[in-house]
């Protein structure tokens, strides 16, 4: 039997936006019938991976990066993150040896990184072809929080060297500019498309069908606002995570919707209430759903995400104080009054899959 090409995916566990970029591309390879052996190295739980990735895969439990340390989905622990990067690089040789050992055991034909630089550095040392895919890289994010740190460039140097070692660094729209990369290749947006399931959702939740249903997804890092400050709005229902233990009849857990994916929910709801993040914004725009989002002014990626959202879809920003105080009625009304833009095609999926097919040979 012929040996299957082996793709090794190093996937950041900093939120689920990295999985939202990679999974549609892997699913496109699977849809094309591409015979492939697939390994994922990540700290994202296997059940979450299987909820997004259609193909069979093996998991290597281990993180090659940590992104930024977070208080919650909106608040970065900047000083602690800088300390963590210094510790990470102080042990660089040990960490690199560990990553090289994982790759030597797996012996892949190609590495795909979104976007751990340690994995790219190890692949370069082992002469394994590598492709990077992400809307950001950690050197630019770190610069956003420590521009005056005396050792900033010393920290960024190995990161940028690893990113530049890849055959290409694919930048799915919307991406940060990344001026330090010599191998950047812009591609279209990447987003999973959901199924329209509103009738089924209404039936499972006991809704009449004429309510405004707002899906609340503030990110994979825990953030639960003070729900008792939220207004009771006539005809509005909020679809919230099960662990929020919502105390009111208009705050509905999505637990009864088991079997429906997050893209299904985004496509079927009237509004997505979220924070600036790649997966949330692109999945909303590509599924034709308006976005009410909480400001995230310190996150370096935010300006490009928000400009793209308002340029291609429907979006409206609220301040963090409005979330905490429950000042949601007027922003929601204004968002729903916007003329609805048509859904955008996620053309970056096929473009990234084409790159992988060419490099796999």
Cα Rg: 21 Å
Widest beta sheet: strand line-up:
3-2-1-4-5-6-7
Label the CATH architecture of the largest domain. 3-Layer(aba) Sandwich
**Could you name the CATH class of the largest domain?**
Alpha Beta
CATH topology group of the largest domain? Rossmann fold
Task: Tell me, briefly, the overall form.
Answer: globular
Helical content (DSSP H or I, runs of 4+): 40-55%
Beta strands, count: 13
Q: Count of helices?
A: 14
Major beta sheet summary: 7 strands, parallel
Structural class: alpha/beta
CATH superfamily of the largest domain: Glycogen Phosphorylase B
Distance between the termini: 18 Å
**Average pLDDT taken over every residue:** 95
Low-confidence stretches: none
User: What string, H for helix and E for strand, traces the elements in order?
Assistant: EHEHEHHEHEHHEEHEEEHEHEHEHHH
Kindly give the count of domains: 2
Strand content: 15-25%
Explain this structure to me?
The chain is α/β, with parallel strands linked by helices and 361 residues long. The chain folds into two domains: 6-190 and 347-360, Glycogen Phosphorylase B (Rossmann fold, 3-Layer(aba) Sandwich); 198-337, Rossmann fold (3-Layer(aba) Sandwich), CATH 3.40.50.2000. The protein has 14 helices and 13 strands. The strands form two sheets. The chain has a seven-stranded parallel β-sheet with strand order 3-2-1-4-5-6-7, sandwiched between helices. A six-stranded parallel β-sheet has the order 10-9-8-11-12-13, with helices on both faces. Helix 5 links the parallel strand 4 (110-114) and strand 5 (130-133). Helix 5 crosses helix 7 (152-165). The radius of gyration is 21 Å and the shape is globular. The mean pLDDT is 95.
């Amino acid at each position: 039997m012929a040996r299957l090409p082996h793709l090794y995916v190093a996937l950041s566990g900093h939120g689920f936006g990295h999985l939202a970029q990679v999974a549609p591309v892997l699913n496109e390879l699977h849809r094309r019938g591409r015979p492939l052996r697939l390994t994922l190295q990540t700290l994202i739980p296997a059940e979450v991976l299987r909820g997004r990735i259609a193909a069979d895969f093996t998991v290597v439990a281990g993180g090659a990066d940590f992104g930024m340390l977070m208080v919650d989905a909106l608040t970065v622990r900047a000083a602690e993150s800088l300390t963590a990067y210094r510790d990470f690089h102080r042990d660089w040789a040990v960490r690199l040896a560990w990553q090289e050992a994982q790759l030597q055991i797996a012996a892949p034909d190609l590495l795909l990184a979104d976007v751990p630089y340690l994995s790219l550095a190890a692949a370069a040392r082992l002469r394994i072809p590598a492709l990077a895919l992400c809307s950001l890289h950690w050197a630019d994010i770190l610069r956003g929080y420590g521009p005056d740190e005396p050792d900033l460039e010393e920290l960024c140097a190995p990161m940028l060297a690893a990113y530049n070692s890849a055959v290409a660094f694919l930048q799915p729209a919307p991406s940060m500019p990344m001026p330090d990369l010599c191998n950047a290749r812009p591609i279209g947006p990447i987003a999973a498309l959901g199924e329209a399931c509103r009738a089924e959702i209404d039936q499972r939740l006991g809704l009449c069908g004429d309510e405004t249903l707002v899906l609340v997804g503030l990110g994979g890092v825990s953030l639960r606002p003070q729900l008792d400050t939220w207004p009771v709005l006539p005809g509005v229902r909020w679809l919230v995570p099960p662990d929020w233990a919502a105390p009111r009849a208009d705050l509905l857990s999505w637990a009864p919707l088991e079997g429906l994916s997050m893209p299904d929910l985004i496509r079927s709801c009237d509004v997505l209430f979220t924070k600036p993040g790649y997966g949330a914004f692109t999945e909303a725009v590509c599924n034709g759903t308006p976005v009410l989002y909480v400001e995230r002014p310190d996150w370096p990626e935010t300006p490009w995400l928000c400009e793209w959202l308002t340029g291609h879809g429907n979006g409206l920003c609220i301040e963090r104080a409005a979330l905490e105080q429950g000042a949601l009625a007027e922003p929601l009304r204004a968002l729903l009054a916007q003329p609805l833009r048509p859904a955008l095609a996620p053309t970056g999926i096929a473009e990234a899959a084409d790159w992988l097919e060419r490099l796999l040979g």
